[in-house]
Amino acid sequence: MANIPRREAGWSRHRLALLAGVCVLAYAVFIQVYFGWSVVLANWASIGAPTILASILALIATQFIRTNRMASYFPDLPQGSFLQLYRLTQIHNLLNIMLPFRSGEVSFPVLMRAEFGLPVMRGASALVVLRLLDLHALTLAAGLALVARAGFSLLAWAFWTVFLLLPLLFFPVSRRLVGWLQCRAPKRLADKLDQMADGLPPHLPAFLLAWALTVLNWLIKVAALGLSLSMMGVSPLAAAFGGAVGGELSSVLPLHAPAGVGTYPAGIAAGAMAFGAARSGSGFSELLQASVNGHLLIVVSALAATALALPLSSRKKSAER
User: Fold this and answer.
1) Gap between the Cα atoms of 242 and 287, Å rounded
2) CA-based R_g, the chain, Å
3) Which among 239, 214, 211, 212 is positioned nearest to 226, based on CA atoms?
4) Distance between alpha carbon 30 and the CA centroid of its chain, in Å?
5) For residue range 22-61, what is the model confidence (pLDDT) as tens digits?
6) Who contacts 146 (Cβ-Cβ below 8 Å, separation ≥6)?
7) Element (H, E) at 259
8) Quick one: which H or E segment has residue 101?
9) Closest by alpha carbon to 81, among 102, 111, 51, 58?
10) Cβ–Cβ < 8 Å for 223, 245
11) Is residue 239 within 8 Å of 273, Cβ to Cβ?
12) Does residue 265 have a cis bond before it (omega within 30 degrees)?
């Protein structure tokens, strides 16, 4: 009987690998039909292998920052479980990329229960908080571009600073709101709310650390993708960073195609045009190609980070034996 969960886990991994392979193959066909791989590879060659490698490594580094955020958010996890948590984070991230309509998010509380025995409600409520912090950090990045377009005026900076500090209001308000609901809810619902409260940060320093790591994660990711888009011909520089934010926002919103095919490049193009990129002519054609290349960069880095997690987790298991 003990082998049944292992068999199911192995079958799940095989299905995940099959799904990833099908999505990548479909995307490869899509690129060939609409752009041609010769054009795409020529764009990558013009950027240069060192720059591409540096961008991929920077994007992989953000996954380690995310894992540290998870470790700090769940301080009661067993000691020495960082590699296990990193592997879980990569599986969750890959499912989010590959599955449509944010359905991959469901995997997080399920994986946390399977790997660490955390209640599903605790994992789900923690995920909600983390996603709100992600959305806040992304909006902050977009806000910086708006401040720049406003000529760095004091009024623009004041609005941006107020928005920056909004999470400081969230922590005390969330605790009080859950407590207020618990006092008025039936016992069965109150127990669920208690599990939801466990998904909130245990204290303010833990919340501030999660907040800081979230901002650091998105600064690195947006910078890496934005600079890559700029080297791919997206101009001005503000448009390149706007495209990076737009692409990531498309992956956070509910409408998200499998593997981000179509929606992620569209998010890059929309974000870039919102900040001054060309809307027609040869410049627009370059923007579309750069959008596809930027999406490929994200997919490749996600697959590389997941591939890295497999040998790391294998070494961990060997060490335990």
Assistant:
1) 12
2) 21
3) 239
4) 24
5) 766 776 787 787 777 787 777 777 788 888 889 999 999 9
6) 156, 160
7) none
8) none
9) 111
10) no
11) yes
12) no
Q: Are 37 and 112 in contact (CB under 8 A)?
A: no
CA distance 115 to 106: 15
What secondary structure letter does DSSP report for 31? H
What is the spatial distance between Cα 19 and Cα 95, in angstroms, rounded to a whole number?
9
Buried b (16+ CB within 10 A) or exposed e, 78-93: eeeebbbbbbbbbbbb
Amino acid letter, 32: Q
Beta carbons within 8 Å of 224's beta carbon, 6+ residues apart: 55, 58, 59, 62
Which amino acid is located at 146 in the chain?
L
Instruction: Say what the pLDDT of residue 32 is.
Output: 81
Whole-number Å distance between alpha carbons of 112 and 110: 6
Residue with tokens 């229960």: 113
pTM beyond 0.85: the answer is: no
Cα distances (Å, whole numbers) of residue 269 to 66, 88, 195, 232, 272: 26, 31, 41, 13, 5
Are the C-beta atoms of residues 155 and 181 closer than 8 Å to each other? Answer: no
The length of the chain in residues reads 321
Distance CA 113, CA 120 (A): 6
- Tens of pLDDT, residues 157-191: 899 888 888 888 777 777 777 777 767 767 677 66
Which among 63, 62, 82 has a CA at the least distance from the CA of 72?
Answer: 82
How far apart are alpha carbons 46 and 31 in whole angstroms?
18
DSSP 8-state secondary structure symbol assigned to residue 199:
T
